[in-house]
Amino acid sequence: MVKVWHALVGGLATVGALGVGGWHLVTHWAPSTERYKLQGVDLGEDAAVPEWPTVRGRGADFAYLVATSGTDRRAPNFETNWQALPDAGMRRGAAHLYSLCQPAEDQANAFNTVVPRTGDALPAAVDLSFREDCAARPERAALVAELRRFLTIVETHTGKPA
Questions:
Q1: Number of structural domains, the chain?
Q2: Which residues of 105-123 are buried (b: 16+ CB within 10 A; e: fewer)?
Q3: What CATH number did the domain enclosing 86 receive?
Q4: Same domain for 112 and 51
Q5: pTM for this one?
Q6: In this structure, how many other beta carbons lie within 10 angstroms of the beta carbon of residue 81?
Q7: Shared-domain flag, residues 7 and 24
Q8: For the segment 24-82, what is each residue's pLDDT rounded down to a tens digit?
Q9: CB crowding 139-158: b at 16 or more within 10 Å, else e
């Protein structure tokens, strides 16, 4: 009985140590600064407002923030985060979650309405995502044409290639 107890305690201790080690690795991992000189973060559509000076202190040079999704969704904390980044010494860029079910022009206009045109902004980013509310899967040529339309409108607004 004592041997079983020792084996159980030893097994639990091992599992606990592996869990703590794994948690530490996940929360403290960063890519090599020798290989990747500039490092950054991206914030999703529903992200909170981080402590940007802390993020900068942990080595992030820039942040991409999701600003819009399709024509109808705006990231609630985009403006707050956008305004806070320069004060933290970080570069900033805006991203759009592109919907296959909504017109490119309307999506670009939604993005341009939310994202200010500033000289310090990084080029806009586009994330092609399959939204739960969209079952469309357009042909390649149609998708490329719509993306070009979206990019042309956004690039005209931002003054930078996306």
A1: 2
A2: eebbbbbbebbeeeeebbe
A3: 3.20.20.80
A4: yes
A5: 0.79
A6: 21
A7: yes
A8: 555 666 666 677 678 899 999 888 899 999 999 999 999 999 999 999 999 999 999 99
A9: eeeebeebeeebbebbeebb
Structure tokens at 55: 């993020």
Considering the domain architecture, whether residues 51 and 117 belong to the same structural domain is answered as yes
Based on the domain organization, do 95 and 77 belong to the same domain?
A: yes
Closest listed residue to residue 42, CA positions, set 92, 117, 116: 92
Q: At what angle do helices 104-114 and 140-158 cross, to 10 degrees?
A: 30
Mean pLDDT, the chain, as a whole number?
88
Question: Does 130 lie in the same domain as 53?
Answer: yes
Domain of 13, in residue numbers: 1-30
The predicted pLDDT at position 150 comes to 98
pLDDT at 70: 94
Q: Are strands 125-128 and 40-43 parallel, antiparallel or unpaired?
A: unpaired
Alpha-carbon distance 161 to 27, whole Å?
A: 34
